[in-house]
Amino acid sequence: MIAIEALEKAFPGPTGPVPVLRGIDLAIGKGEIFGIIGRSGAGKSTLVRCLNLLERPTAGRVVVGGREISALSGAALRAARHDIGMVFQHFNILSSRTVRDNVALPLELIGGLTRGQRLRRVDEMLELVGLADKAHAYPAQLSGGQKQRVGIARALASRPSVLLCDEATSALDPETTKSILALLSEINRALGLTVVLITHEMQVIKEIAHRVAVLDQGRVVEQGRVFDLFTQPAHPVTRALVREVLSLDLPESVAARLRHAPLTGPGLVVRITFTGPSAREPILSDLVRRFGLSINILHGQVDTIQDAPFGTLTVEVGGAEASLQAALDYVRLKSLKAEILGRVAAPDRAVA
Length: 352
Ligand SMILES: Nc1ncnc2c1ncn2[C@@H]1O[C@H](COP(=O)(O)OP(=O)(O)OP(=O)(O)O)[C@@H](O)[C@H]1O
Known about the structure:
By secondary structure, the chain is of the alpha/beta class. The protein folds into two domains: 244 residues, Rossmann fold; 97 residues, ACT domain (Alpha-Beta Plaits), CATH 3.30.70. The longest helix is centred in the middle third of the chain and has 18 residues. Adenosine-5'-triphosphate binds next to helix 1.
């Protein structure tokens, strides 16, 4: 649905052009929710604004629905933009217009519909975003979440096939964020809409994106399926972002006592990472029953990412060396990851 090819954008600076996007290649499929995440200043907003030419790329191509947007200007560009809706962080709705008139605005600008047709379309959109009862309210009478629903209804009024969301939930509290993300997900499913989601919050990506690209200093440093990125982040920026959502790190109190050590002896600390179907198996009780090990859980988190279970358990394991080795082999045979983190010193071991 969207092809971004060798996209570059530079802004003029005091000593010459300052590159902000440095060669972006991305392909976004029809009906996908595609997340673009990065730290502040990574170039996310600039990238999303290049998709509807609110910013004109310095080099490269943007193709949306088979049409090369980056080659268009004037009336042809305005017409192409009707196929690309956009939702903003601060809603950008007009305080002097009612909810209904805000949503009707793009239809008035496009023209071609009678007043009756416009109103029917607007009411349909308000129904879709759950604001049918607020049609005659003014923005000042709405909560942040409701204002964003108006923003979404307005973006969808021209029946676009792509919806760009630039930090659409960043101004909202966690509860409202959840409801707006659920709405975007629902709309994506119901209308088969392609959604591009710009955010700095990994939680947003985890909640609804199918695939994600990580942007750093104007480059895509990693991209893939959300589950894969969460479970096997490769780039340091991705790892740092994932850590904000999944606490994979050991608590300080345990980490401080960890020592490198051979397999033999007491207090061996092993981290087991659960992914895929084996994540549902009772692996710890297996280790106790089959290999006669003693197990003390030090730290753990089990979560679901897009309905697939994922988690880590850090355990202190005791037992004969041969049993330990066999147990590690057993865990790996189950396609779970088992890493020896080290050993905790004997007097400190009894930490649960
Ligand atoms: N119109 C502009 N003129 C000059 N520099 C700009 C312009 N727009 C953005 N920049 C610069 O481009 C860089 C990337 O900005 P951008 O807003 O795209 O990043 P971002 O990842 O969306 O960050 P944030 O979440 O903080 O907005 C920043 O260094 C910013 O100062």
